[in-house]
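In response to reviewer comment 3 from the previous cycle, which asked for concrete evidence that the modeling workflow produces usable outputs, we include below a single protein chain processed end to end. The sequence was submitted unchanged, and the resulting structure tokens are shown without manual editing.
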Amino acid sequence: MKLCNTHLAGKSLLAPMAGVADSTFRLICKKWGASFVFTELISANALVRNSEKTFRLMKFQKKERPIAIQLFGNNPEILAEAARIAETLKPEWIDLNFGCPAKRVVKNGAGSALLNDLHGLEAIVRAVRKSISLPVSAKIRSGWDSKHIVAVEAAKIIEAEGACAVTVHGRTRQMGFRCQADWTVIRDVKDAVSIPVIGNGDILSAEDGKRMIDETGCDFVMIGRGAYGRPWIFRQFEHFMETGKLIPEPSFSERIDHCIKHYRLALKIIDQERCVKEMRKHIGWYLKGMPGCAQVKQEVFRMTDPKAVLRRVRKFQKQLNESADQDKSEI
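The workflow returned the following structure tokens.
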């Protein structure tokens, strides 16, 4: 399979989630079968201003390839300059964000705010395409609100300006991440353009991913929140697409093993203090649904020593295993 001149092993892509899709998580998801990953959202304005933090967010390791750098902003000239800077890292392509619903992004006229300014969106795609030699893709939502569904019109503009693919999230900006995603919008875009369409929204299982492809005809699926604490969803999806058979969920103990491996990898990549803070949410996601996990999460969220965190998680794992063994002995 080929997407934006890049050969992919499968049909599942990791979404460019701010505060989540860092280098560590991208590596973990690649290990579990994600065919392609995106960086976190990169501010074009901050990149052009030489922000050290933004440069750090943009960097990636060779093992993360294939990868795209996703940029957001509202000024065509600044985005063009940011794209030239990003191109120096030689990602597979540059992705433009026209879908982020966050207030801090929208209030500056970026992200999904550009769905209310299709001329501005058009100018941005055109400027970036002319400024770099790499392929350019874009990510959109269905529209600003239910009265302004513009995904098809926006996708046609993106295609006309030479983009290689478009990702469609089946929610409006007004919906945020609430309510059920409307996949019919993805189908409408697929019917309207000839470039590859990546479907996004409410893929929480392997079955969801296949159903999206079957119902919309989209070429690839982008998985975001469905991978929180469950990076194996990519392998489950690819296996289900290939064989029609489901890979079962890992046991509680196996999930904790994967959590600890994730934590240790993060400690190798980022500094200890930042690692402890950023891994808290991941631990919460890995432990979600396990009996007694609320108390463990409360304790872990107050800890500052990574070794203490790992010891507490291991202790919890031991307690779960002992409880499971006791249940078996009583049967």
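The mean pLDDT is 95. We consider this sufficient to address the reviewer's concern, and the full set will be provided in the supplementary archive.
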